[in-house]
Every structure is written in C-alpha cells, then in structure tokens.
Amino acid sequence: MAEPPGAGLVRLLDWETGDLATALVLSAARLLEREDLTRLRECQDDDCGWLFLDQSKNKSRRWCSSGDCGNRARAKRHYERTHS
Asked: How confident is the model at residue 27 (pLDDT cuts 50, 70, 90)?
C-alpha cells in the first residue's frame, strides 16, 4: 500500500506572532527542531551565562560574543599576567 504524500515528513514550525513571549517560545521550538543541539554551549564568561550555537569548524567557540565576553576574558587575563 502506498503512503500518502508527505507521510513520514517532519513539518517545521512556520508560525509568526507579534507577541514577545510567544515569539520566544517559537524561537526555542525552532532551535530544538532545526539545529544540532550537540553544538549548544553556555558562554564561559563568569558573569554571562548566555547560550549559543557553536558553529565554528572545530567546535571550540568559548563565548557568546568574542567582542564582549571574549574581550573581557582576554583583558582580565592580560591584567593578571602584567600585575602579579
């Protein structure tokens, strides 16, 4: 017996909303549905805690933003190295 068209296919969420809370829930659902969650990381900055998808080639990204959290970590490391 032949399967009907679309049988076995996953339907992606394509809803849109103007409500912020609903938009956040939909974004989280899309993340869970479409991304490789083995690449989900938490920023290594002690004061941050944001989550991000590590899309680097060798899976070694450490911060949510190299310009913000990464810069703070590098500046702190430099200060500790030069003032000890």
From this structure: confident
